[in-house]
Every structure is written in C-alpha cells, then in structure tokens.
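quick one, 278 residues, struct below
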Amino acid sequence: MAQNVGVGACCLSGKVHEGRPAGHVEEIGGLQTYVAEPESQSNKKTIIFIVDIFGWEFKNTRLLADEYARAGFWVYVPDVHQGDSLPISFLDNVEPQNQEKLSVVDKAKNAAVVPVTLGPWLAKHREGVSRPIIDGFVNAVRMLPGTDKIGALGFCWGGRYAILQAHGQEKDANGSSVGGVDAAVACHPNLVAIPGDFDPITKPLSLALGTKDSLLDQASVGSIQDLMAKKTNVPHEIRLYEDQLHGFALRSDWSSEKDKKAMDEAGQQGIDWFNSYL
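---
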C-alpha cells in the first residue's frame, strides 16, 4: 500500500549552503552530469546521486558530492529530470522561516503555489517516466572503464529511487537487465510504497530519517523497521535523527548547531555505509 503520497511545504523547506562546487560537467548516458572526482582518480567505487526535486544543479547537492569525492568515491550527479527540475527560487518562496515576514495575503499565495506546482511536476516525473531514465544511467555507468562497485544515494524524491535500485538488477520489457546497484542509501525518502518498495530489496540499504518528517510519519517508519527486520540476509540500518524535518540531510540550516550536526552525521552515515559495502 502506498504511503505518504502528499507533498507539502515541508518538502520544500531548507537552506542553500555557502561554498563553491569543485567538480565539472560532462555528458554520460545521454544525461548532463556533475562529476566529482576523488584525489586517487579511481572510479572503482562509484556513487550515483539521485537528486531531490531541485535537481542536479542545486548547489547543496554538488557540495555534498564533493564531500563524498574527498572521502574517496567517484561521484556522478545526473540530470534525471532532463532540464525540468524545480527552480531554487521555489524553495525561497515557501521556506518556513520566511513565512513569518509575509502578510496574510502573501502567505496564502505561497500556500497555493505548492500543490499547483508540485502536482503536475510529480505527474510528469512519475515512476513510469523516471525509473527507466535512472536505470539507463546506472547501466551507462556500469559500462564505463574502471567502474567496479556502484552505490546509489537518494534524497527526498530521489530517496525512493535509491531504494528501488537496492532491488538489484531487474528485467525490462525486452528481457534485458537494467539498473540495480551494489548498495544504497536513502535520506528522508518520500512517496514510498509500503511494503511494495521494501519487500524486493536484495542489496545493502541504509536509511537516514528525521523524527519530524511530515512526509514519512513514525507509524510508517515503524512499518519499514518491521519489514527490514525480517531481511536477516540483507545488511540494513535505519537511523533516526531527533527533531529533524524532511530534507535535513541536504538542506539543513547551518546556523543551527543541532541541524548542521544532523546533516554532517547523515553524510558520514552514507560514507561509512559505502565504505563497508562497495
């Protein structure tokens, strides 16, 4: 049964971080892709970022990709939305802290923007459209010389697709093997189907979840914990971050010591997981 199918302003909350991404852009598998390379220049251990609704150009995403590269991984951030990610200005308009400064009329306008904008976008980028794009990119990366193990790291919208990649390789309509990674990490995934997205998991999966995520409530988290506990032959972990909202692993407010600490720990959680299973 599908859970948490509504997407509200919480999905859009967060901060844009300071810093300048150090990677470069190239085309891989037909997609524009941000590439962050480790000092070793080895792509033996590769991580594919599956982005949130703000896409591959969102500065926070690229800065985090650089962090994973510094930890020794070759990182790809593909444009799986194919030029149709939501603009970061949309985040500014609905960011909760900004709402306190607005008039009642402006608050109402911003509240109306969310469903009007998100609904059509989610329909356009539904699973039947997005999953073949992501599977195709995984296949393209597997073909790159030097690639050995591949991990998927997903955030929010992309978190669900990281979970789906943990199903392992599957067959397409033509009987060809598509997608599937060697390990996955999903940070505050939304739009997940419980139990449908979790029953088929065969690859190591780590989840980073906030206890105040309005898009994945604690009852749903409990159901996921119960499902994964039955998978005694599949390495997995579920870490809960106290008082963290949806998006905390990518869009935490660095001015808050507690929020930045949670983001840093979620980043280290992913690095440790991939060090163990890639």
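Confidence is low (pLDDT under 50) at residues 1-14.
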